[in-house]
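Late entry, written up from scratch paper. The run itself happened at the end of the previous shift, but nothing got recorded in the book at the time, so transcribing now.
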Amino acid sequence: MENDAGGKLSSVRKLIISVRLINKNVKMSIFSKFFSQNPKSSDPEIQFGRFTDTNKSAEQYKSWDYAIENFDSEKYLVAYTHLLDFMSNTEKSNVSYTLQNGILTFKIHQGSKIIEGEANTKLFSACAKIVLAENPPLGLMRILLENNFDLKYARYAFDESNCICLKFDTFVEDGSPHKIYDALKELATEADKKDDVIISKFDGLSPINRHHTRDVSTEEINSKYHYFKQTLTSVLNEINNGTINAFLYPGAISYLILNFIYKIDFLIKPEGNILEQINLIHKKFFNDTITSVHDKNKEMIRLIREFEKISFNEFASEIYEVSSTFGTSVPEGHQRLVEIIDAQINDFDWYCDNNFPVIAQAICGYTIGYSLYSFALPDPTKALLKLYYSITENQLFQALHFKDVYVSSDQKFNKSKITSAIKEIIKDNEEKYGKISVDLSVLKFENTCAFCKSYLSLLKTIN
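Output as recorded:
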């Protein structure tokens, strides 16, 4: 781990510093996270977007400070209990531990995986079982061996039950809370990414430790699958048959693809192979080694065409609810969103003024989706971005039995419901974030292009 003298901070230090800056003068409420996820009790309790670990309470920050103090005093096991308290969510559903007879044992939930570990006065160890592999394929073994070189703390290994695992251990004298947090985060997030992916790519593997995941109703999966396929068909049709010249305007094609994958990631929240493809497409576009936008588009189109092969059963196997401990997105304040909007608004105006409304709308969707995919934003900002999707993708929300109809069957916006929803978000977050002002007068409802741009303008007015 790099120290402060080297000019670098561990991920947990970055998290704490960033979140404390974002949440300065914030009044923390034990129920705020629950109500911000689903402010209307009559709506179904469907989660949107990936887990972020930025909503730490004042008590959790105290736990972090106690962990540091006890570790410095060589009270290692006590320090680790405070560290686990720091990582626990409000409901205490993601982390459990016991400390008896000088041995600390613990379990941590991260998506589809459970990390189990223990510590004594000498050694700290943790392990996540990924898949059962009675006869592991040679190709998989080679991949895991190569992946070991990319890991800083954890390593792939086999246990006595022929399970492929990720393991980490260290002497407690070297196991500071910073190091343990970073190591557990690497181990947990890597294990969570790998299980569904390698099971889908290799035969002879069996899932393990999946009893803690929560099933989603068949009706919800049906609605999401229909939306997934319909949206994919629409994007591919626009790329192949749209009015835009893909050779002259390759950036337009990029916007279409990125808007699509970010929507799918936030609204459907797939796990496993679909998520892996989404992450790969994102990396392809932002990979500096591919300098031509045409080449990037070619690769991204090839990857999204893989989605055409996904059957309903394959899709259904990747839709389930989980508890998590570690987020993977970077904590940012509202100003970061404003900067992203400013960077895209000129492109939006050009495509809108030159009669390419589908591309213009994709630019707005890209701005919203990229922000949600890449950053852990403050609660009111995230809620307003979700509302944008609730409006522009209202057919999906109606299929999922959300009660508010923001867009009529003849594509007319319901001005009163939209403005009421914005006011409700502001009101729900003022106890936690203090006085929030927003200029509703900038909203325009005459057509979709005008509304999308005006909604981005509204987001810029938030104080």
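The chain has 17 helices and eleven strands.
(Scratch paper discarded after transcription.)
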